């Protein structure tokens, strides 16, 4: 049936019809209803095949008749009889419309003149003419003229202007050569009557046949339109019904027979909140199918970790897809997608901070959100457009955050805007300096010294002061500001991700991971990169414009920290800086073996220690009610112990310490290297932000 539906859809597409989506939600048909659908669809397909075949035959016959008519009309111009005796002589003109033979030569010809007429594709005319001349050695007269109206090419379906040819020759051998060459060039040849009266009778008959075929073809087109109307009405519903039937059989094929091979058993994972709906659906299915045995659900205890089900809507689906691209959280672990709803657009906005560009993105996404129910937007076939449409809420937030960061950067289409008056005063600088006319003439750039009273009146109310857009050191200022901002935001973001592990360890009652994993991870991150954030803020607070020239370099201090040395040319930020940095590096290095060996050794000691196990649960034939004794968030197939451990805790089987140690070693290497590489990766916020600010420079 799907093959039949594909044929029907191709016929609709060929006729220029658009197949609308199914307006209703039909149920899956029963067996007898499916047979009726199959019969009706095959009947429509057969009618379409016959009508299409008849229409193609009629069109081909009509095209041949019209070509033949044009051949006779154009040939009549070349082979017209001479004027009667006594008429004034017609002046000779070099024209394609003139007769091929001089009328005065007819009486001197002893041989019979034969003709070959037909039409040829315009692309083959030159090669056809050259081959005729070479093969027949000039013993022919060929004339070519374009057809007055374009016609369809049966091979390609395109509308082209055919070329009519009329060839006159002497001798039967020359005629055979001409016909063979014409066949090789796929010419459509037609018989050409010798007498003018026969040609007139033939053209009259062609006119009558063309009129009759046109009437029959019009009726065929009307009948075809009626059949296509039936297909447009029925096909959407049929396709939905067949898809539901395939889905049902797909699920049934995944089931297994019981011992008696009289019923099907399906083992599935089901959320607790959906159990009632599953029971109702099974009950309704048993009732509608007329089965004497009612379907039921029974819980199967298992130690396997349940799969992760994350419910999304049209707003959160895009963000969840981004998170799932990096990895799906294990069962009952913290889902980072809700936090990514804020952090992902904000980090993008740091790189794309511009009020104008962000507003264009926001309006584009808002248009997609407002018209999200439009069928033309949802059913587009362009893959790139569907990607944009599925992420419309993501683009909407990215545009909104870009507007916000654009106000912070004070950029609108890479142009600074003056919302509040500048905090820098040129007049105060001019009053307290020796800026003479000669000085101003020789110095095109003037320096505003914030140490002069009244020159700098305090920070700008919101964002960056617009006067920086006029400064020659504008790029140097933004370079330092955005680089440090990227490092601070990146380390805060990484620290937040590490702290989310607290909820997982507490929920799964694995409190040893708080000490043996989370604590070493935070010590390693904060002792190195958290200290870098501290140096950035400490330098901002301690040094002002008055002593900014003697401010030390944070980068040199950070390098000396790993080398356990000090640089005499780079003054310390505070007293005792070198010992503090040495202790922090030692703590960071000491946390690595704890992170590597802590959890495997703890699990080894825990298994070797004698334990007072609790009695195993007794399973009886009588099962408890399905929804009783279940806790919120538990799985249908999982026991309470499995839910508490979440598949992470040790089970009753022997632990594979080699696998545990290998997993912990990979985690340790990945985390330590990731802290370094991710910190450097966050610098792309700085680089792309500067690149975006200079992408559209204003004159």
TrEMBL record:
Residues 30-68 form a coiled coil. Its main location: membrane. The chain crosses the membrane at residues 346-370, 391-409, 485-506, 518-538, 583-603. The keyword Cell division does not apply. GO terms for biological process: vacuolar acidification. Residues 613-649 are annotated as: Disordered. Keywords: Coiled coil, Hydrogen ion transport, Ion transport, Membrane, Transmembrane, Transmembrane helix, Transport. This is V-type proton ATPase subunit a. It comes from Accipiter nisus. The lineage of its organism: Eukaryota, Metazoa, Chordata, Craniata, Vertebrata.
